[in-house]
């Protein structure tokens, strides 16, 4: 069994354990070494070959007729050992060796052979196994006892040592097998299976393997009445017993180091597998830095879960396991557990420290605190598994790094509040997003109050603000107006954040021009903050009651300020002073007071009904306070002054509202609900019914007057519809003819009298408009095309006639008719404008749906476009082109803004703000800008352009051109301003890709302008600005590539990468270039312009194909085969790659070992080559020839490595000169083999610690080494192996079989640093 196993693998963390334990064992005077690799049978065979003396002990005792068992022989050996202990003078008396010793050794050797040949399975018979282990232990005692009689018992010592060594090799393999098989499911024939399976189901955490568990009691907690158990690793009780027996035997035999090594390696591998099964992977610091936050957040959650499970279950189980199987050597158990726990803790600590070094951002705070709490809980517990000072120090350091990062992140909140300088006020004075974000963030942060208090005490480096210093004689720390107790660092920081938020909100309130709205804004935000603090016990505990009282006082002051600013002037109108003159009410003053009151009240309602107070309690308080001062004052004023007016029209004109109306309107304030158009009328006693006059509305929907003039309503019964249509057609023909007559008149004196049917036609038009306004079926615009067409034709005719009459006026023939037509035309145009707005608003609603349904913007169907076009024609024909243009432009601007907002619109940021921004913030703004710009260029601008063309072209092209210009320029200009500001920011490598996104987005925007119907001057101006911005972006991008070249040149680190691995500079550079190649067409365009020094407007397209015009003609012969499509960009990449090659060549010289230099160059070269192969983008730019050149360079490094490393080894296997006159020169053969063994051991020891991370390259190297080494070694051994006269000599010089060499080659480049001597196989050369 021992001979069939492969080389024993060790881990780097085993070295410390082995060194410490060797030191402990050096005091034992045992004539054995403690490494299996150095144990051999040489001593025994040397004695047999040289002395050949008879066994003097065989005559002392007669042969027994009955063969004794192993147990009986062991008992005999025990008596012999006891007798030896009674010998006083060990050097003088001759030693008599009983025959039982030889029989015992023979029987034990035979038993080992049975186990190895699998005729008897170890672990299958508990009694037999115990007997065997006891015999081995007895043999160990015998060897120790005979050591005192070395001069008299040399032969027995040699033979016994060989048998003991054989036994220990077997036991080592058995303990390795037991440990490795422990994770596999138990077989069904295990007698303990049923019991263990049933018992394990109730365990809290059931491992994947369903084998038996051995439960050991842990100490009882004072707070628990029951016994807590910790599950050991998945060993059955039988396995546990066998492992304990073997450990006891190996330690008794002086093989403690080998026993511990097997434990360390097997349990470490098992632990790694368990961590993977739990979902936790080991990540390097670079991997963690490259993770996006969503991925890292998931890994942190896994880390927390697995670390807790490891601390509470896995490591306690391991410790109990070691204490159980090494019960007689607790120091070894403690050392083993210390080694394993250190390695496991290093994995968790490395991840925690890598997380702490990631880029700081506010959303990471809570995960950092979770990790901090997890680490501190593992350290602070009374029963913590991490009791060693070194482990606790590592965990504390990692927690400290996380705590420091948490403090830094929390303090970043200050900067984010300070830097929030948005110049756009929140609509309606609502709660600002900054307030919501900050308060919710602080609320969640205060759930970690105790933890934050701890980390702030430990890590806050800045001094507390001055107003937190100890003041006064009372010795207490006092904040102005608050408690006399000095605040904790976290409480001080929290208060500072709240003060900064207050200052920021105060500044934002000044953005509102209306002082009343400023107070509404401050009240909304102040109440929101107060409610959040009161609703969270944690944050309330930190800030205290004094803060809440002060905040409530601030809100009340804002409340008073709002009432003072808003209602003082209204109440002035309701004062009784100054109304009476000589004891009588002066009506003109009273009328003026009511008129002013109505005007002020309606204006306040119109304005403040759109304002928002989201907190219902604050909303109610405001309404109650307003009503408390307004209703009594108004009721008293109306009661005293209302009877002065004549009941009827005069009363209704001035006293427009009853007190109940005022109260109802106040209830609508501050919730964005408009006042109804028809408030309740006054109802004084004995007042006659009011005249049927429409009440004035508080909010008008159009910009036109609704004055009806003197036109009477013209109603026609529905059953006479056909007659009416006939009359309208006839009247329209008459008006059309009249227009022709009037148009042909050259002299006013020849102007005919305006016929009476003009008034009839005008009344028809007015009547139709009224029916449309009342939406009498079927007269609803857009539902009946024929009726709509009739109305528009009539309005067009009437407006044409009205324009003609207006041109002739003043004239007594014209003026009477003009006074009739003008008001109706005005009403018609007001109606048309209203319908135009309705149609365009419906189009905007369709646009909103189109965002979800992916309907093409602007989402206006063809029927709606046709209706809009006909209304536009009518309004322009009627001379209302300005009103038409204004209505269309304003509605489409609103739709455009809504679409931009839906697609993550960006803020209009000033140049100075852009320059001051941190890159993380600016990066987000750029991403929004790119989305908005591309959406505007590809969807919004073309959509608006097409809609405008459909409506205004070809009949009104000049108006359409003006409208498109007015729509396009306000959209494009802010986009260009931000792009220009970004192009002038500081250059850095990480900004390249965002700048390229902007460059491509500007390409789309330029293409949209090329198809736009804007005015030529507008397009010329915008494209000129765009070209300047793109030129600046190009200069910045070129500068970034120059900086990359300089950074490669200046990277002169003097520390080589351990093991010859891939250098971080290689990874960074090739990955950076790989991402850059995603923009290969854009970068080719940029470098073509840069290399050829041409202007952008001279190139045909942004993605210039440089196959016809390229600056890469001066490339060297080796680089001329790059694809011409990307010649200019490829030339830049080749330049960077050459700089990288030069840098790596210089770094390779840092390695003293020439072989390691070539490994380093191969690793980096293969990494570059694989990236090129994996990235179709890089390959498309660089071409196959470049890839082939790289492959050729790698082959050259490969050959150089073989030459430097293996040529000298092969010289040892050179068979020339080993024979003289046909006889083998043994001395030369021995010297060659000795040199070979020494060099192979050294190479294996060194190069197994080297790293070749690419599996294909690793395989190629091993295959190429085996191809030259194995045949040469096999031939050498086959030819000269027979020249040794004994197995002893063969063991000494031919240490390895060819299979061993092959196995050792397979272990190269793993980075494990294995010891080749552990892989030695038994030799079987004939004597």
Notable characteristics:
disordered N terminus, two-stranded antiparallel sheet, disordered C terminus, mainly alpha, 1327 residues, single chain, 6 strands, elongated, two-stranded antiparallel ribbon, 45 helices
> pLDDT average, as an integer?
75
Unreliable stretches: 1-64, 184-232, 462-484, 672-720, 849-855, 1100-1110, 1112-1120, 1316-1327
Q: How widely separated are the two ends?
A: 23 Å
- In total, how many beta strands? 6
The portion of residues forming beta strands comes to under 5%
Structural class: mainly alpha
Overall outline: elongated
Helix content: 55-70%
Family: Belongs to the EXO70 family.
InterPro entries: Cullin_repeat-like_dom_sf (IPR016159), Exo70 (IPR004140), Exo70_C (IPR046364)
Protein name: Exocyst complex subunit Exo70 C-terminal domain-containing protein
Keywords: Transport
